[in-house]
Design a protein that fits this description.
The complex is a heterodimer of chains A (434) and B (133).
Chain A (H helix, E strand, L loop, with lengths): L5 H4 L3 H22 L1 H9 L21 H6 L13 E8 L5 E7 H17 L7 E4 L7 H13 L2 E3 L6 H11 L3 E4 L1 H13 L12 E5 L5 H11 L2 E8 L3 E7 L7 E3 L4 E6 L13 E7 L10 E7 L1 E2 L11 E2 L4 E2 L4 E3 L2 E3 L1 H10 L3 E12 L2 E10 L8 H19 L4 E5 L14 E3 L4
Parallel strand pairs in A: 3-4, 3-5, 5-6, 6-7, 18-21, 19-20
Antiparallel strand pairs in A: 1-2, 7-8, 8-9, 9-14, 10-11, 11-12, 12-15, 13-14, 16-17, 18-19
Helix pairs in contact in A: 2-3, 5-6, 8-9, 10-11
Chain B lengths: L1 E9 L4 H11 L4 E8 L3 E8 L2 H10 L3 E12 L5 H11 L4 E7 L6 E7 L2 H11 L2 E2 L1
Antiparallel strand pairs in B: 1-3, 1-4, 2-3, 4-6, 4-7, 5-6
The chains are: A alpha/beta (434), B alpha+beta (133).
Bound molecules: zinc ion (ZN).
The site of zinc ion has 7 residues of chain A, from loops.
Chain lengths: 434, 133
């Protein structure tokens, strides 16, 4: 199977531009009429829906940032009523508040189509057994690839995350040929396969996979492809826009094919917010062209990347997203979970046994992300036994785990020993080599 | 009863000597020392000739220092003397959190221990005729 939706994926540049323009014009009218925050933003700059006549006018539109979504928590950004919404996804944001995204049935269909296009790029077809080892839940990974696999007409195994031995049993017994998970988890699985003597091509039928939700390098890709003999595709998505499937690598890996009939990407300068020409690196900004539940105009993803428009041998004509190279804020992605230092701060401020000074050490051990939070004990507490310290650490560890949704190792140190610094960036040491 | 100082120390090279140097510079003499440790940190327990000064000095030097009361006794130099005392305390419902022995100039063994119920311990020890410090 070469394409999931040939006409849409291989349309000419002219056709694409007409389609994008039609959709943008419609979308801007729709958000102006249905989303109060956008009406306010557009009124504030005296922009009328009629001022947007084609995709070339997109630069006139106001930006959307995460704070806009937080301010509208939980439903202020929805363009449809509960009657039309069929799903809510959410991801953690700074200050512990969630960012919510609402989907209509049509949104779920479009997302499923994009995920199906991605699966085909990884080598899937109607006969595939697709093993989904992303977590199922508020996080979009599991359900996103699940619906994509079903849309494709393949057979989906909703394994979800965790319990590696069970995963391996399912992968071998069911003969999965396509797998979806984080890049660090596939490397972990590869090691387990090796330990158990399971050979690619003999005991394993895997031939391709889509791996996303965390940053990974070309070296990791080469390692995964060599060890498992599979096609390893990078997949991009974010819950505010749609989960995995917004963009994905094809077999030629010339950059992730961006599904720009539904999601329009721009790269902008982080400081001036001016649109940058194709090829230049800056912040990825996305406008949804067909979304109904919660359309977003020029949403600033905070991901730093570049686009390329080089033709791809696969025949797909979309614009392509080069690998994400960083973040424009201080968000950390630990085992696929977004972690903001401000979430850590709010936990520390509530706990009186410690001081709100900390340092975060991030590393990757045996291909799994680890996070250590070094925290100072308060000089005002009384401690004369090892158990006293252990009790403080245990309490803080569980408070941190429930606030961050990912575990962190807590290391307690003497008051005044964590380096004081002005900039937030200095609080983080990321030793992961990507 | 005597005062003891408990100091939190992360397992980092030179941390114990930094602590001792701060005390030395303040002219405080160490009488005894014991360490309870885990993999990543330790609690140094010391008894000095000037505990108030030691406590203030350590706090100023950035150490997490806690002043704790210990029940301290002189153990008679006879076989099983300490065991007998401990059995009596245990039977009398006194829980000992931790204990350690001091350096002694007198030739007698001196023991300090931490308990949540020192009054109870003192009553029992008095009954036994144990010399308290
Ligand atoms: Zn391609």
């Amino acid at each position: 199977m070469q394409y999931f939706q040939k006409e849409l994926e291989t349309m000419s540049a002219d056709q694409k531009k007409v389609l994008q323009s039609e959709r943008l014009v419609k979308m801007v009218k729709y958000v102006y009429e249905n989303q109060k925050p956008y009406r306010a933003k557009m009124d504030a700059i005296k922009l009328k829906p009629d001022d947007i006549k084609s995709i070339d006018d997109i630069y006139k539109l106001p930006y959307t940032v995460k704070q806009d979504l937080r301010d509208a928590y939980p439903f202020g950004m929805m363009a449809r009523s509960k009657k039309d919404l069929v799903r809510l996804h959410a991801s953690s944001a700074t200050t512990g508040k969630l960012t919510v995204a609402g989907y209509t049935m049509n949104d779920i269909d479009v997302w499923g189509e994009c995920a199906a296009r991605s699966l085909v790029m990884a080598g899937a077809d109607e006969d595939s057994i697709i093993h989904v080892a992303y977590g199922y839940g508020l996080f979009t990974g599991g359900l996103g690839m699940h619906y994509g696999g079903e849309k494709l007409g393949a057979c989906v195994v909703p394994a979800s995350a965790g319990n590696t031995q069970k995963q391996i049993q399912l992968i071998t017994d069911f003969g999965a040929d396509i797998i979806c998970c984080t890049p660090s988890y596939i490397i972990y699985l590869a090691e387990e396969f090796e330990k158990m003597g399971l050979k690619p091509g003999v005991d394993l039928k895997l031939k391709g996979g889509v791996f996303g939700a965390e940053a990974w390098s070309e070296n990791m890709r080469a390692d995964i492809e060599k060890r498992l003999g599979i096609r390893a595709c990078d997949i991009y998505g974010l819950s505010e826009i749609a989960g995995p499937g917004v963009a994905c690598d094809c077999e030629y890996k010339t950059g992730m094919h961006f599904q720009d009939d539904h999601f329009y990407p721009e790269i902008v300068d982080v400081d001036t917010l001016e649109q940058l020409p194709i090829g230049e690196s800056g912040e990825l900004v996305i406008t949804t062209l067909t979304k109904e539940g919660m359309p977003l105009l020029r949403y600033r993803t905070r991901d730093i990347a570049s686009l390329n428009a080089d033709p791809c041998p696969c025949g797909r004509t979309t614009i392509k997203l080069n690998k994400i190279t960083g973040r424009s804020d201080d968000m950390l992605i630990i085992r696929g979970v977004n972690v903001f230092p401000s979430q850590i701060e709010s936990v520390l401020l509530k706990n009186h046994n410690i001081e709100p000074h900390y340092h975060i050490n991030v590393d990757r051990v045996n291909n799994l992300d680890t996070m250590e939070i070094v925290v100072e004990l308060s000089p005002h507490i009384s401690i004369d036994q090892v158990e006293d310290v252990e009790a403080i650490r245990k309490k803080l560890t569980s408070e941190m785990a429930s606030a961050l949704s990912v575990s962190a190792k807590i290391t307690l140190v003497s008051p005044g020993t964590v380096e004081r610094s002005e900039g937030k960036a200095k609080r983080i040491t990321d030793r992961r080599k990507l | 009863m005597i005062k003891q100082i408990a100091v939190f120390l992360e397992n980092r090279e030179g941390r114990v000597s930094e602590c001792c140097k701060a005390l030395k510079d303040a002219g405080v003499n160490l009488c005894s020392m014991s360490i309870a440790d885990s993999k990543e940190f330790g609690i140094l327990r010391i008894h000095t000739d000037n505990n108030e000064l030691a406590h203030v000095t350590l706090k100023k030097a950035g150490f997490l220092s806690t002043m704790v009361d210990l029940v301290a006794i002189e153990v008679p130099d006879t076989p099983g003397a300490l065991a007998d005392i401990l059995i009596q305390l245990c039977d009398g419902g006194v829980n000992i959190d931790y204990m350690y022995s001091f350096a002694n100039a007198s030739g007698h063994a001196q023991i300090g221990f931490k308990t949540e119920t020192p009054e109870k311990a003192i009553v029992i020890l008095e009954k036994l005729g144990v010399k308290m410090i």
